[in-house]
Design brief:
GO terms for molecular function: electron transfer activity; heme binding; metal ion binding. With 142 residues, the chain is mostly helical. The protein has 6 helices and 2 strands, in the order H-H-H-H-E-E-H-H. Strands 1-2 form a two-stranded antiparallel ribbon.
Amino acid sequence: MKSPLLLFAAVATLATGVALAATADPNRTKILDGYAAQAKAQSPDFAGFSADRGRALYLGPHSGGKAETPACAACHTENPTVQGRHYKTGRAIEPMAVSVTPKRFTDPAEVEKRFERDCPNVLGRACTAREKGDFITFLASR
């Protein structure tokens, strides 16, 4: 019988590999590099993106935006690996997690279009470059 510790190490290594593979798309990397450059210009103490901050942004709750959308999870569900629904139209939304929707966050124009529309709805303002990078980093790890 294999050691439980060895089994845990193998599963952890596999999970890490899957998460790294999810962020490996060169288009997504280019988008994140652009946000990192913007974030560094906005704040010289910028030290990188955080999946934890991205998770907090995704789950909210936030004030300032629409009452119906106090968080991204209002439409996209608390579990980004499952299908969401638009709060008003009921239209299905593909899962936000990159592990389920691998092309997510790979088209720069589409990414910006969504942030420009959704940040004011959720936050009541535009997202910063750091917030955008944190958000993508979180969802690329799911």
